[in-house]
């Protein structure tokens, strides 16, 4: 495999069991920063807003002295509800986008809202959108892409996610076909896409110009089969270990990275192994092994900024 020098590898708080701004079962943010640097990564995401310091000067000091840089921030949205939720959505997006820009990053990862609660499994709304809701989802996402670009100079990358309305190959294709490539790109999460039955290599080869960002993740096929059989919500599925350490799961990451490299564009590929909750001493050894695995694929340098 040709060394993919245009792919920049990083990790995220998610790989340290961090899902919330504050939670006693999560490692302190200082430990996350120490360990992600120790594992050999140079790029990180902000994770849930408020987990890392939100003062740009302080966060810059903390990342700089560990040799870390920020690739993206993350927001959750429910844009299929239409203009009625715009002000509420923007109130959540704005501080994240501001910090993301202040840290020198260029991407905002946008995750659709869940149709069922990821902790309790309670059904919050129908899992299938109406045609009118699909129109709202696509037009409001384009609006978000425009506003984030104009106000903050960031590119939104929409993240297909389990238990949301943008999940399967059918829904991802429908979403991409209905949105403007100039405003909306995709954050392809290999684990979530496999969880929902998708083929990451096929998606890259079919919609290559829409792939703006990658999350590297694998699914344990045995646990996934049980999750599907019993319709287990995503949160409890993660607690069962459905997202597993590479290279023990699917999809194989080397072909995905090779397909991404053939696009001949600069991409971030951020390792995200969902592990919530998890013992505090579990993430670092996994992070080290995963970084060594990626080294073996030729991903030794983070490439240009």
Give a quick rundown of the structure:
With 305 residues, this protein is α/β, with parallel strands linked by helices. It has helices spanning 29-38, 56-64, 86-102, 131-152, 169-177, 190-195, 200-206, 221-230, 234-239, 253-262, 283-296; strands at residues 7-11, 43-45, 69-77, 107-112, 155-158, 185-189, 211-216, 218-219, 243-244, 267-271.
> How many domains, as an integer?
1
Q: Tell me the Rg in angstroms.
A: 18 Å
User: What is the average per-residue confidence, as pLDDT, rounded to a whole number?
Assistant: 95
The ordered H/E elements are: EHEHEHEHEHEHHEEHHEHEH
Bin the helical content: 25-40%
Class based on secondary structure composition and strand pairing: alpha/beta
Number of helices: 11
Instruction: Going across the biggest sheet, name each strand in turn.
Output: 1-2-3-4-5-6-7-10
For this structure, the CATH topology is TIM Barrel
Would you state the CATH class? Answer: Alpha Beta
Task: Please give the alpha-carbon distance between the first and last residues.
Answer: 22 Å
What is the CATH superfamily? Answer: Divalent-metal-dependent TIM barrel enzymes
- Which range does the strand content fall in? 15-25%
């Amino acid at each position: 495999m040709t060394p993919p020098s245009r792919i920049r590898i990083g990790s995220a708080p998610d790989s340290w069991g961090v899902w919330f701004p504050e939670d006693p079962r999560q490692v302190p943010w200082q430990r996350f920063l120490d360990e992600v640097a120790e594992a050999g990564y140079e790029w990180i995401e902000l994770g849930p807003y408020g987990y890392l310091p939100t003062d740009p000067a302080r966060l810059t000091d903390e990342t700089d002295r560990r040799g870390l840089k920020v690739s993206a921030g993350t927001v959750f949205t429910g844009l299929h509800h239409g203009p009625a939720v715009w002000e509420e959505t923007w109130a959540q997006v704005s501080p994240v986008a501001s910090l993301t820009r202040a840290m020198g990053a260029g991407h905002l990862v946008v995750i659709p809202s869940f149709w069922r609660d990821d902790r309790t499994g309670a059904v919050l709304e129908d899992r299938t959108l109406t045609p009118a809701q699909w129109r709202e989802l696509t037009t409001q996402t384009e609006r978000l892409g425009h506003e984030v670009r104009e106000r903050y100079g960031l590119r939104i990358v929409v993240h297909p996610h389990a238990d949301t309305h943008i999940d399967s190959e059918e829904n991802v294709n429908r979403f991409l076909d209905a949105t403007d490539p100039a405003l909306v790109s995709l954050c392809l999460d290999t684990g979530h896409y496999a969880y929902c039955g998708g083929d990451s290599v096929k998606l890259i080869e079919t919609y290559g110009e829409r792939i703006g960002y990658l999350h590297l993740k694998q699914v344990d096929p045995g646990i996934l089969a049980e999750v599907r059989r019993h319709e287990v919500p995503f949160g409890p599925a993660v607690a069962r270990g459905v997202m597993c350490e590479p290279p023990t799961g699917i999809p194989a990451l080397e072909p995905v990275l090779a397909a991404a490299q053939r696009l001949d564009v600069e991409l971030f590929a951020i390792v995200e192994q969902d592990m919530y909750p998890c013992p505090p001493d579990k993430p670092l050894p996994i992070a080290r092994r995963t970084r060594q695995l990626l080294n073996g694929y030729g991903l030794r340098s983070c490439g240009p900024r």
